[in-house]
Amino acid sequence: MRAVPVSIALCLRVVSVVLLGGAGLIACSADDDVGGEPLVGEDPSPEPPLGGGSTSAGVGAGGSTSAGVGAGSSTSAGTGAGAPESDGPWDSMSAGAGGGGGAGEPAADPPPEPPPGEDPGAAQEFTCEGLDSSQPVVLYVSADDSNSMSSPVHARELLRAGVAPEPWQVRTYEFLNYYRIDYAPADEGELRVEPQIEPGEDAGTYTLQIGVRSHDPKAPRRPITVTFVLDTSGSMGGEPMNREKATVRAIAASLSEGDIVNMVTWNTSNAVVLSGHVVSGPDDPVLLDAADELSANGGTDLENGLQVGYELAQEHYDEGRINRVILVSDGRANVGVTSAELIATHAEDADKEAIYLVGVGTGPVLGYNDRLMDVVTDEGRGAYVYLDEVEEAFHMFRDRFDEVMEVAARGVQVELTLPWYFKMERFHGEEFSTSAEEIEPQHLAPGDAMIFNQVVRGCDAAVIDDTDTLTVRARWQTPITHEPKEASREATLAELMAGSKEQLVKGKAIVAYAEALKAGTTEALRAAREQVLAANPGGDPELDEIAELLALHPSY
Q1: Residue 453's closest CA among 529, 505, 407, 527?
Q2: Is the distance from CB of 65 to CB of 53 less than 8 angstroms?
Q3: Does residue 300 share a domain with residue 181?
Q4: Is residue 127 part of a domain?
Q5: What does the alpha-carbon distance between residue 168 and residue 120 come to, in Å, rounded to a whole number?
Q6: Residues 247, 391: one domain?
């Protein structure tokens, strides 16, 4: 696609409206001419068509944005006139029927053909002409909630089943969330900001990775009130039900004496199994018995299940506790406007401890519709995990319990200041903008890091000065008192070039894996595997797994 001329302040927004139980949620990507308004770039990868299912507001499911923001230019993320090569935004009205329980939406008209003689893949050259050397490039970036981690696990299950993931199923930023990139922890109550950079293959391009690391989990943690909202409809039979039971057991193993558990099951109707149960300690026998008794039958009534679940969560709410609703489902249900508003209302209480929703997808691998969980966790501001096997429940809810459940920093906003001659060429996060108001701050869990991986390009390699500085600034609020805090790191390009790149190397390998899955070509898959192997001289088990999975792809 053609790049937007750098002298034009252009934000292209395509607004896709998906009917969710009769309500419309709006998904924006950068595709609307708004003249001099702030510039926004979002993940433009295509989404699946939906049928009676649901979608998230804001961003599609691909995980990488080809963009031209910076250096006094305008956004060219997404598709539309002037966009460079990118995956293109998903149109929710595309043809076909998705998962869930309803009919697919009608097919949209195909996009218009380019004018005769026009090369839609030709990118306009990025030059320094017209740029103001006194004005640095300031961008605000988002990596989505750093504990949304479903996409790589679903992709893993597909690959092990001999199935190639669809491009829309691959959200690159979730791969960076799921696989562990080890940054040194911050001091308690603080965040640690760590930028790393290295030259790209093309002159004037650089791969820049930013890690924003929280402090390690505290011991003992705060007490917690957990409200299970469990799908027991007929479609949950077999492996999905095994994984749901494993979720309850894994969380039971992580609870402490005095923690409180509520449980409601939902199918055609709903049933309150536990209300205000105070656990005796890890592996509470009452909770384990409740897990054993779960069974699949009947239809789906998510709306009432959520309503009752939130009534229980509110009844046993305690501002001094972690308060979480845990929704476990195979995704074959609709979320209507009432449920979406209910979830958002409880998650957005800015004056006290909110009730966040954690989504757990159970499969089955070939019939799973992940849009339900993407919607509810987007609204509920909680983690989204997928279980490809029973053991994954213990990995996420025992080994990474604090990372999934707790908050170390609220409303984290990350600001990146680059020298005047750089632009954002490719962003492997969720969205970025020249305006802070356009980017929703995200929460960060203890023991976790927000990872921002991107490629920046200089307008001319000759003007890049390694004595120029790059600054990353993180602003957030403390989780209990909501005290505003800030951390920053400023360094010259030369200092960063001479610094450690261990985390950057692993981050690039993870990105190469995800992008190769989206490309799906033999060339891309084999090149990514070579990069992963080269990045792993010490036998990192996660990189070992990624290399194995790439070789399982049907096109490898």
Answers
A1: 505
A2: no
A3: no
A4: no
A5: 22
A6: yes
Are both 310 and 436 inside the same structural domain?
A: no
pLDDT at 143 over 80: no
Picking from 327, 210, 332, the residue whose alpha carbon sits closest to that of residue 263 is 327
Scan for tokens 């910076």, then name that residue: 70
pLDDT attached to residue 147: 78
What separation in angstroms does the CA of 175 have from each of 144, 152, 387, 444, 511? 11, 5, 15, 16, 7
Contact call for residues 60 and 16 (beta carbons, < 8 A):
no
The answer on 442 and 354 residing in a single domain is: no
Q: What is the mean pLDDT of residues 461-474?
A: 98
CATH number, residue 347: 3.40.50.410
pLDDT digits (tens, 9 = 90+) for 265-297: 998 888 999 999 999 999 999 999 999 999 999
CA distances from 252 to 164, 259, 273, 556 (A): 35, 10, 15, 41
Exposure letters 289-316 (e unless 16+ CB within 10 A, then b): ebbeebebeeebbbbebbbbbbbbbeeb
Alpha helices by DSSP H, listed for 179-322, are 239-254, 285-292, 302-315
Q: Which of 106, 141, 160 is the last residue of a domain?
A: 106
| Domain assignment present for 117 | no
Same domain, 286 and 362: yes
**AA letter at 80:** G
Contact 450, 414 (CB under 8 A): yes
With bands split at pLDDT 50, 70 and 90, how would you rate the model's confidence at 417?
A: very high
Residues 309 and 367 in one domain: yes
User: pLDDT, tens digit, for every residue of 504-545?
Assistant: 999 999 999 999 999 999 999 999 999 999 999 999 999 999
pLDDT of residue 75: 42
Strand bridging mode 192-199 / 224-231: unpaired
SS3 (DSSP) at 144: coil
Q: Quick one: tokens of 521?
A: 């070509």
User: Which of 62, 10, 55, 18 lies closest to 34 in space, CA to CA?
Assistant: 10
143, part of any domain: no
Confidence (pLDDT) at 101: 34
Q: CB-hemisphere CA count at 13 Å for 61?
A: 28
Whether residues 385 and 448 share a domain: the answer is no
pLDDT of residue 228: 98
Residues 271 and 373 in one domain: yes
Domain containing 183 equals 150-217+408-505
Amino acid at 249: R
Q: Where residue 491 sits, what CATH number does that domain have?
A: 2.60.40
Residue 335 has pLDDT above 90, yes or no: no
Q: What are the structure tokens assigned to 38, written together?
A: 């702030």
Return the pLDDT at 349. Answer: 60
Percent above pLDDT 90 for the chain = 64
pTM: 0.81
Which of 405, 432, 465 lies at the terminal end of a domain, its last residue?
405
What is the residue type of 231? D
Asked which of 120-124, 199-203, 236-240, 392-396 is least confident by mean pLDDT, the reply is: 120-124
Domain-embedded: residue 114: no
Number of domains in the chain: 4
pLDDT range class, residue 68, cuts 50, 70, 90: low
